[in-house]
Specification:
There is one protein chain. This protein is mainly beta. 3% of the residues lie in helices and 47% in strands. The protein has one helix and twelve strands, in the order E-E-E-E-E-H-E-E-E-E-E-E-E. The two termini are 24 Å apart.
Length: 117
């Protein structure tokens, strides 16, 4: 995959992470930033969302161990849930929201805005 940055905004940059065709509708897959930071990429009826991949309650990978149910991802380790669109914790024992990422789709390519300092 070409890791070319498509735009910069101050210190933020848009980074390609995967293609839309890799993420089946209603599914989640893992993607990775160039520095190894893992992301969960969701396709909700053609709308693409990206969150951090790790459950905020434990070290579970949401893309590998989670289940998409409607607009929520359920962590199968302790059955906590998050709103995929906002990152909001929706079910105990999860109380800390997931980081969500700004997404840009160009053609079949999905980019995220890396706003980390």
């Amino acid at each position: 995959m070409n890791q070319q940055i498509i735009a910069t905004n101050n210190t933020n940059k848009w980074v390609p992470i995967c293609s839309v065709s890799e993420v089946e509708p209603g599914d989640v897959m893992q993607a990775e930033l160039p520095d190894g930071h893992k992301l969960a990429v969701y396709n909700l009826d053609g709308d693409i969302y990206v969150t951090d991949d790790r459950c905020t309650h434990g070290e579970a990978s949401l893309s590998e161990d989670g289940m998409v149910e409607g607009e929520e991802i359920e962590c199968t380790w302790h059955f906590g849930r998050f709103d995929i669109r906002t990152g909001k914790a929706c079910g105990m024992p999860c109380t800390v929201p997931l980081k969500t990422w700004n997404v840009e789709v160009q053609g079949d390519q999905i980019f995220v805005e890396d706003d980390r300092s």
